[in-house]
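ugh ok fine here u go
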Amino acid sequence: MPKANIEAAIKRGTGTSKEGLMLEHVTYEAMIGTVGLIIECLTDKRTRTVANVKTILKKYGANMAPSLFMFERKGQIVLCSPSGFDTVFGAALEAGAEEVEESTQGLTVEYEILTSATELGTVVEAVSKLGDVTKAELSYVPVADAALDLNSAPGELATNLRSLVDTLEDATDVVKVTVSTV
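structure:
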């Protein structure tokens, strides 16, 4: 990787562009078929970013359209812990969590904890005593009524959606893409 790319990435991480301009967080809503997308970007030039996002969306048959109604803003925590499910669930629930799911990654047991946006800090503080918090952020989570099962979607929609998300995630200013699918 070229040194210039590394330096640019470090500057973006500190909130400035390689030219020293302040970066701004912008969020765009889009639709492809009946699937909603939330595209979160970090940019020093809004007009360039929106033009790039629109170009990518158009290429895959998507467009800018209201889709926020398909999502809820939630606190999302990932915890690696040797404690059992009951212990993690109890501590998280007592601190204000709404949902706890357990998954195994090789020998590691991870817990994904969802909470209201306002309770994120409280729940992180409570569960961090049980293990390593590897992720704690505010995220857009698909509303159950609006979520589309990607496995049951028509083949063309599923293919276009995967390609669209990959292309958006590769775009320079795009930080995160959230899709209303399960």
